[in-house]
Amino acid sequence: MTIHIETDNLTDQNISTALEIGSYTADGDRSIFAQFFADQIAGGGSYTYYVTLRIAGSGSAYVISPKTIAIVDGGVTAISGQSGMINVRNTDVVKVYLLGLATDTTTVDTTVRWFEADKEAPTAADNADAIWDEAYADHVGAGSFGHYVGDILTSSSSAANDASDIHVHVNAMVNTDLPAIKADTAAILVDTGTTLDGLIDDIKAKTDNIPAVPASTGDAMTLTAAYDKAKDDVLTPLAVIDGLVDAIKAKTDNLPTDPADESLLEAAISAVTAPTAAAVADAVHDEVIEGTLTLRKIMRLMLAVLTGKASGGGTTTIAFRDVADAKNRISSTVNADGDRTSVTLDGD
User: Fold this and answer.
1) Residue 5 falls within a domain, yes or no?
2) What does the DSSP 8-state code read for residue 185?
């Protein structure tokens, strides 16, 4: 895909000699190309357009071959052309020149559009990662999601108090209710000094006396006094256990139906209000990117360069207006080579 970078416009120009009709200063490593349009030409002759590159904005202006010569028929008053792909590095300066006929001296209007090639827009996953990886401490705007999260983590607001209420109830359940349950159920393992393990051992001692091959189905069983005693040895402890279980049930019946007090949890959760899409957008746009420049200000500055009016071309003072044409967003002073020596920004 390609992305439009900027557009240069000139009106009522003299192209009887080669005229610079567009200039672009690279702000990073890019692959670019330029389209040019010329209107109200005389026509009926040869027109030449070409591109130059000045490395880092200084030194020789290298003509990027080939120069293009177009034979324009008589009566044709508008032409256009496009350069090939040009690889530039930061601060390289690229210019487009147009040479017309001896009669093209006053009426020619030109436009040069600059494009960047092979630049991929961020994916939804990239945007999501950038938002989730953003430090909450940098977002202090009241009502913003980052500010709300920060309040919870630093325990300094009503939002933090809501979270604190949840913590109190959960802490009470863990530190009070659970130990009480543990103390009650511990009685299962105790019976006048006899542990459940001991009872199981006694049962095993009795069942060890059962023959390895019991009587077959239908065989008569001879019950002895030993059987009766063994039966009693099993049933009596079970009766004790049953009593203990009843005692435990009497205790647990006193526990509330909802030990964690679900109503309080639900009230605390419902009190949390998710930020609106507008609030999230404002938080992102008000993020400081560099120095005192927020993303919102940077976008205003970029919009001025890309779509706003420009003045001072060919002079030492160049300005780019905001879209409403109410003020200068960018005012820069340049030297004879077009290098910026000072820049004043107004992104408010």
Assistant:
1) yes
2) H
